Amino acid sequence: MKRSPVLFASTALLLLAVMISAPGCAKKVSPPPPAAEREEAVRETPAAPAPTITVTASPSAIEKGQSTTLSWRSTNATGVNITGGIGTVEESGSRTVSPGSSTTYTARATGPGGDAVAEARVTVSAPVAVTPPPSAAVSDAAFFEASIRDCFFDLDEYSINEDARRALIANARALAERPSLRVTIEGHCDERGSERYNLALGDRRANSARDFLISQGIDSSRIDTISYGEERPFCEEQNEECWQLNRRAHFVMR
Length: 254
Known about the structure:
alpha+beta
């Protein structure tokens, strides 16, 4: 069958329209991003910085019963913990401690970037016993001279008055401290009265002092007595003050 010229022309026009419209129907492709944007996408998020910590003890060596100061400092930390009974503490600070024995304190700092550890050791030693230097030995003679005192009596009396009592108590304590000491108690009088009377009065005075010491616990075997009456005056002036010095029980080491 012979084609019509009109049909042929219509077909040609249709093909031409399809060819013209084809580029407009193609899929639209977005242009590539700029180079800076591509680098930013590839770059990773930076890691958090790692924490650091230091800890020291000053002094690091102490005697038992003494104290020392722990000091610490951290960076990039959100928490710090120290062993040895201290526990959670601030990021930086100090604390006084008194360990009973040698102890190692471990400080741990934690944060987003991890953790860090530091240590400080405190050495504890036993207190050094201080031995006092030995005292120089005091001889019995020196001890007697420094510790034993005479006692005095009222006129025509051999009873122990208050002053004599205090002196004899002190003598008893000294003799108890030195059990090796032995004494002779001399009875003395002032010059008034007869020689015979004063010898008897001196004897009573010496024995009164002796009896008092025995009552204080001193063994009688350590004490002798003798009377000199007025024969050996300690003072030879003629007045009451001098006579008083002669009315005594005088102690002599034997």
